[in-house]
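Input record (one chain):
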Amino acid sequence: MFRIDEGKARAIDATIKVLTFAALVVGGGWTVYTYFETRQSEARTAELQAKTAAFEAKKPFEAKRLEFCFWASTHASVIVSSPDKAEVAKATNDFWALFFGLAAMVEDEKVVASMLQFGRCLKNKANCNASLQQLALDLDHDCRDSIAENWGVKLQGNKLRAEQLDEPTVNPAHP
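The corresponding structure, as predicted from the sequence alone:
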């Protein structure tokens, strides 16, 4: 039979107790760590869910703003570019309907200011601080900036100017 003297038995017993205590400390520490990590993860998830819910709640309004900008841009472009007088008259009426309707409800200050400047110029050429074509482009750019900001997207900053139509074409392939 196998015999262990009392000193060795005590040493083995003490070692087992120390290892058990160390395992309890490590296990307890891991439990505390995972508890707080899970709470942080849940807090991040709740924050993302709140942001998503806020965005979803604003979505119908932002969709209406997008539609408004689409029509404001379309009507302004028809007014400045169509040779058909009936089409221009209809687009002008539609522009004013937007101006006195949805503009006050869905647009931000910059877009309304562009619409106002375009409308002033449309009513009286003496009120123009730029060509009507340029004011239509400015309205388009302001709508684009508003949409990008409100939908949280970044768009390249290419700002088309009416004067670019009169600039000579530079083609590096054919000097």
